[in-house]
Design goal:
By secondary structure, this protein is α/β, with parallel strands linked by helices. The protein contains 8 helices and 8 strands. Helix 6 runs parallel beside helix 7.
Length: 324
């Protein structure tokens, strides 16, 4: 009897209805591209179905193996702690059903090409005709208390800067890590560039992405002599879908290894020495499946969120200081 494989796409979740719709569209693309497999999806927090629901659905369809793929760009607390806890908990209760956890998207040539395409879309829509050498690129990441994940934003920015010929590039974060977007925007306006292109290195929209664009609008209003261009986030660009297909293939090929050399839970990373060997645990019980804004659940989380809670139950989450 041939192996019946299930693919589980594990999303972050959001209170933002648009973000959930976009994630579900991505899951639909995967199902179309992988007709030979059963494909399901679920969310770590806020939205339904939760991850456990999707895993149970695959089990009910009689799959003999599950490939779990993180629907996330970088390996911070969610990919290193929360998702493995969900997967391991399910595996412990279903010892006869093998389940393998894949790696995050990470920095990938396909994703960089998709990022380039999104930036080019924004440039093409602008009538100003400003050259890239006169443009500063601001790449914005989610921001986490994991320095490895944060440093990936710097690498993405550098590769796009060099690869596309921008005059300069800076990075910012929507929360938790420094500099925050509004701080970065205020700083880059002093550098003398005619255009600032703001590119959120995010998979989907959500409260954080919408906030990034709002901050950009505010900067544009305050600095009318500079053109501010809002580039689209990655979303379901065909190369993003290709990257997810590759991750599934990596699991089947037995090589879904993430970067552990700079993981604060395995190695002594400067400033995070106390994190080594922290217990892997899930931390989203309080917001799992409680609903989106459309469900009228207002429980005090007015962000998507800033992830200042403690991942791994160890130490204090890093919060940025004001550098005014």
């Amino acid at each position: 009897m041939s192996e019946k494989i299930g693919v589980m796409l594990c999303g972050h979740g959001s209170r933002d209805v648009d973000a959930i719709r976009e994630f579900q569209a991505l899951a639909g693309h995967l199902a179309q591209r992988l007709p030979q497999y059963e494909v399901d999806s679920g969310f770590l927090e806020f939205a339904k179905p939760i991850i456990r629901t999707g895993l149970d659905a695959l089990k009910a369809k009689g799959v003999s193996r599950i490939l779990a793929v993180p629907g996330m760009l970088f390996a911070a607390g969610h990919v290193k702690n929360d998702l493995p806890w969900e997967i391991n908990s399910f595996a412990a209760e279903n010892p006869g059903l093998p389940i393998t956890f894949g790696r995050e998207l990470a920095i990938d040539t396909k994703l960089l090409a998709a990022a380039k395409a999104r930036i080019e879309e924004a440039e093409a829509a602008s009538p100003a005709g400003i050259e890239r050498k006169d443009t500063l690129l601001l790449v914005v990441g989610r921001g986490t208390n994991d320095p490895d994940a944060n440093s990936n934003i710097a690498k993405v920015a550098r590769m796009l800067w060099e690869g596309m010929g921008f005059g300069w590039a800076e990075i910012a974060f929507s929360g938790v890590a420094y500099p925050l977007v509004d701080q970065a925007l205020e700083r880059v306006t002093r550098l003398g560039y005619k255009r600032v292109t703001v590119f959120p290195y995010f998979l989907f929209t959500g409260i954080l992405v919408k906030r990034i664009y709002e901050w950009t609008d505010q900067a544009a209003a305050a600095h009318p002599g500079i053109e501010f261009v809002k580039a689209p986030y990655l979303n379901d660009h065909p190369l993003v879908v290709d990257s997810f297909i590759e991750r599934v293939g990596e699991i089947l090929g037995g090589s879904p290894a993430m970067n552990c050399s700079l993981c604060k839970y395995r190695e002594q990373v400067v400033g995070y020495e106390a994190s080594v060997g922290a217990v892997q645990a899930g931390h989203h019980h309080h917001v799992r499946g409680i609903g989106t804004d459309a469900d009228h659940h207002d429980h005090g989380h007015h962000h998507d969120h800033d992830h200042g809670h403690h991942h791994g139950g160890h130490g204090h989450a890093y919060r940025p200081h004001r550098h005014d």
